[in-house]
TrEMBL record:
GO CC entries: plasma membrane
TM helices/strands, residue ranges: 57-78, 90-113
Record organism: Actinotalea ferrariae CF5-4
Protein name as annotated: Cytochrome bc1 complex Rieske iron-sulfur subunit
Electron transport is among the record's keywords: yes
Tree of life domain: Bacteria
Length: 349
């Protein structure tokens, strides 16, 4: 065994010597390679290209100005109406114009920096945080040099374009905020919906009333109040009144005594508005009876009072008490017993 091991030991020793010689050959430090050779851009050597780049930047700032003006026009001329089509048109007009206002400034700033501003790489040694007077004066000189390199002082049209675009862009935020001053801040309206005693449950969006006999175990219905479109501001009212209704085996229901009569033969109805931030919950899993909010994954147990079993929601979904009328149609016994949706200052729970 010793004769077989000897060559391995000598080999290891020879290898170690080779490594030592390699380490000795390495320099104590690497030389700084310095900055790569500066390559001039087309705008640096061609006055026509320089002027063309300036016009392009001005055009982008002008696009931003057009977007801001378009946003103001859309805000006042195309308010969201009572129909889905009018709301869609208003949102599209506001969204596109806001995109142009913000994109124009961003694209112009990037193009300006890449084509017109100085692109020389500079190095500066690290110094104590507070420099002496001479160093501070040198820094100011560097800033003045950078301003000179940017050409902002001698490019009058460009200067006017950037000032106009940057000055007008905040109007896309300020005008809607100012428009809300004096608006309807009555949050108590969230305490009540269109549901009332005797109001039939109808399919969303057809508005067809629902018979209890048509709701099979495991089925899910998206529900709105009957004759919803006859109400004033029906879109806003729908946003508060939407309900998700399911039917399960009555033996699977865990109902507290005070809510024993709120369901009908295994059919339960709960607000569709998540109690976290108000997203619509609509993903129902039949085997577990769990209802999932797609926004932040809050999960509610429909068989146990829609209690939260997972996620950031802090309260169960409000339950709509239901029964049937003489014709077998599902109807509401009353409105929700608590405000729907997320928390707000005035609500008690």
């Amino acid at each position: 065994m010793s004769h077989e091991q000897t060559p391995q030991i000598h080999g290891a020793t020879a290898g170690g010597q080779d490594l030592d010689r390699a380490d000795a050959a390495l320099p104590a430090r690497f030389e700084d390679p310095g900055l790569p050779e500066h390559r001039l851009r087309q705008a640096d050597i061609d006055p026509a290209a320089d002027k063309r780049a300036e016009r392009q930047v001005v055009a982008m700032f002008a696009l931003s100005v057009i977007g801001t003006v378009g946003f103001l026009i859309a805000y006042f001329a195309l308010p969201p109406g009572e129909t889905v089509a009018s709301m869609r048109l208003s949102n599209i007009a506001l969204g596109l114009s806001l995109f142009l206002a913000m994109f124009g400034i961003g694209a112009a700033a990037v193009h300006w920096a890449k084509t017109l501003m100085s692109d020389h790489e500079r190095q500066e040694a690290r110094h104590p945080q507070r420099s002496d007077a001479a160093t501070r004066e040198a820094a100011l000189a560097t800033l003045r040099e950078g301003a000179e390199d940017s050409g902002i002082g001698r490019r009058g049209v460009l200067k006017g374009a950037v000032v106009s675009a940057v000055a007008l862009a905040p109007l896309t935020v300020a005008v809607p905020l100012i428009g809300e001053v004096g608006g309807d801040w009555n949050v108590s309206k969230f305490r009540h919906t269109l549901w009332e005693r005797g109001k039939r449950l109808a399919r969303d969006p057809s508005g067809e009333p629902i018979r209890a006999a048509d709701v099979t175990i495991g089925s899910v219905f998206h529900v709105i109040p009957e004759n919803l479109r006859e109400a004033d501001h029906w879109i806003e009212e729908k946003a508060k009144a939407v309900v998700l209704m399911v039917r399960m085996d009555p033996r699977d229901l865990k109902e507290p005594t005070e809510r024993a009569g709120w369901s009908y033969d295994g059919i339960v109805a709960y607000s569709k508005i998540c109690t976290h931030v108000g997203c619509p919950v609509a993903l129902y899993e039949q085997q577990t009876h769990h209802l999932l909010c797609p926004c932040h994954q809050s999960t509610f147990d429909m068989s146990d009072g829609a209690k939260v079993v997972f996620g950031p929601a802090s309260r169960p979904l409000p339950q709509l008490p239901i029964t049937v009328d003489d014709e077998g149609y599902l109807i509401a016994q009353d409105d929700f017993d608590e405000p729907i949706g997320p928390s707000y200052w005035e609500r008690l729970r």
